[in-house]
Write a structure and sequence with these properties.
By secondary structure, this protein is of the alpha+beta class. About 15% of the residues lie in helices and about 30% in strands. The chain starts with 8 loop residues before the first strand and ends in a 13-residue tail after the last helix. Keywords: Hydrolase, Protease, Serine protease.
Length: about 575
């Protein structure tokens, strides 16, 4: 993606229930490398490392409360805080207060999978964040606030009761979750939050939530300082976002951002943390929120944000444009590669020039007109569509203009960015633990800096490889559980499996089927770097159960591979 690289880090705003033990947040899991001055990223272009991000790590639940930061907080509309703001602040807060009663505190118990030991889960932990009530007896919060949830409870402002909530939908890419509460008492006396339109630059914005630094509701104020396509930390994707200068701290996640009329213009979800910056927060804008809600209402489930399955190149160089047969008045971007599984593979070809999307001309730098005096990456137009929608694209090929109507679909990655609540898959034979690689797996194996510490071959596949079939996976020998039968193979770690007895491995299920049905005398695994593993078939299968017993592993394969 285009944009200047930096050492800055964004972090998500979920507050660990006991994060109060720390004066400053501790890192947990990264997502992508951030920019000091993030520029609109080009849609469909891969190959750059995502911005690295820090999130809050869970801490002990009986921690003491840390001191408050420099940001101005209004706890329960207290007189002291009001006096500190002055007359100008009073007017803004009075307008927002009627909507503050719809802001709730979200309590979640998480139980994360253990991707390095996939037959077990990690120790459960608790966190708190923010949310707000909308129409239809529903509550919005961030997806990362309820990720891997075991139990979710909500508490209204001024109430001492926690209500058990049900998760209706989780939008991983857009970092939004939809909840509801069955208890009628919860909905009494609350006016749902109303959504407004996309704000303009320098519009006042007020973020309301329950961040670290206290237990009561908090208000911070600022202005909209930038509107662009930005990297969503939790979703590992790029969508429209707002940059504001109001403080967004741990625990603010899922809280609403109001304009000066008390109308919601977004959801707080992440912030930029770097020694050279202050008060840079990010808000999910209403177009993304409404897309998520309408997607759920139309489909009964979250289906995601579609993309055009291509990698593309800017056409800013005049010699390049001339060589591609473009006229002086033609602008567009060049198709570098087309994903084999994408619907566009039936009509788009490498070296096609995409001139327009749904009648909107695309500039040579991949941007389209946005609002007066503003431009934005053309991925914004694509993200406004829904999965399964059709779009008209105009293409220049061999100096001739063609028009194609394409069906839009979501992105299928060789190394999945998320497992979306599913437990990780695994298979064990003769002590060899086979697993499918995903971003959570890489993070578990190599830590928050996996983008630097993981093997180069895995990172290249993560950034550049395209799937050849919808069910393709990258299967590796995760580790070898030491036993007599696997002597000499103990040091094989995270090495890709290419074939079993000459049969190419397409995914983990394919490997399981081949091994379980093998009638040959030997099992031969072809690995990358020209390594091979050879085991006697009957001995290997017989030794597996003893190894499972030794390591207290309940089954040789995950449940999803048994069917």
């Amino acid at each position: 993606m285009d944009g200047s690289a930096s050492k800055g880090k964004r972090k998500r705003g979920r507050k660990s229930k006991a994060a109060a033990d720390h004066r400053s947040p501790s890192p947990d899991a990264p997502a992508a490398a951030a920019a000091d001055n993030p520029a609109p990223a080009a849609a469909g272009r891969r190959g750059r490392k995502p911005r690295r991000v820090e999130v809050e790590a869970p801490a002990a639940a009986d921690a003491s409360t840390p001191r408050r930061g420099d940001a101005k907080h209004l706890a329960n509309g207290g007189d002291a805080a009001m006096a500190e703001l002055g007359p100008a602040g009073w007017e803004e807060v009075v307008r927002v207060v009627p909507s503050m009663d719809a802001v709730v505190k979200v309590f979640c118990v998480h139980t994360e999978p253990n991707f390095s030991l996939p037959w077990q889960r990690k120790r459960q932990y608790s966190s708190s964040s923010s949310g707000f009530i909308i129409g239809g007896r529903r509550v919005l919060t961030n997806a990362h606030s309820v990720e891997h949830f075991t139990q979710v409870k909500l508490k209204k402002r001024g109430s001492d009761t926690k209500y058990l909530a049900t998760v209706l939908a989780i939008g991983t890419e857009c970092d939004i979750a939809l909840l509801t509460v069955s208890d009628d008492e919860f909905w009494e006396g609350v006016t749902p939050v109303q959504f407004g339109s996309l704000p303009a630059l320098q519009d006042a914005v007020t973020v309301v939530g329950y961040p670290i630094g206290g237990d009561t509701i908090s208000v911070t104020s600022g202005v909209v300082s930038r509107i662009e396509i930005l990297s969503y930390v939790h979703g590992s994707t790029e969508l429209l976002g707002l940059q504001i200068d109001a403080a967004i701290n741990s625990g603010n996640s899922g809280g609403p951002a109001f304009n000066d009329r008390g109308i919601c213009v977004g959801i707080a979800f992440q912030s930029l943390k770097h020694e050279d910056v202050e008060n840079i927060g990010y808000v999910i804008p209403t177009p993304v929120i409404k897309h998520f809600i309408q997607d759920y209402e139309k489909s009964g489930a979250y289906t995601g944000f579609p993309i055009i399955g291509i990698e593309w190149q800017k056409m800013e160089n005049p010699d390049l444009r001339k060589a591609m047969g473009m006229k002086p008045d033609q602008k567009g971007v060049r198709v570098r590669r087309v994903e084999p599984t994408a619907p566009e593979s039936g009509c788009l070809q490498p070296s096609d020039i995409i001139l327009s999307f749904d009648g909107v001309d695309i500039a040579n730098d991949g941007t389209v007109p946005f609002r007066h005096g503003e431009r934005i990456g053309f991925s914004y137009l694509v993200s406004q569509k829904y999965t399964g929608d059709k779009a008209l694209i105009k293409v220049l090929r061999d100096s001739k203009v063609h028009e194609f109507k394409i069906k839009l679909a979501t992105h299928k990655r060789l190394i999945a960015a998320h497992v979306k609540g599913r437990p990780p898959s695994y298979y064990i034979v003769a002590g060899f633990v086979f697993a499918a690689v995903s971003v959570p797996y890489l993070r578990s194996e190599y830590g928050k800096d996996y983008e630097y510490d993981a093997p180069v071959k895995l990172l290249v596949k993560h950034l550049h490889s395209m799937v050849e079939s919808p069910d393709e996976q990258l299967v590796v020998v995760s580790q070898v559980l030491v036993a007599d039968i696997n002597i000499g193979y103990e040091e094989i770690v995270n090495t890709q499996v290419l074939a079993v007895n000459g049969h190419p491995v397409k995914n983990l299920k394919d490997l399981v089927t081949t091994v379980e049905n093998c009638k040959d005398e030997f099992l031969k695994f072809d690995l990358e770097y020209d390594q091979i593993v050879v085991l006697e078939t009957k001995t290997a299968k017989a030794a597996t159960q003893d190894i499972l017993t030794t390591h207290c592993i309940p089954s040789a394969m995950s449940d999803d591979l048994k069917t």
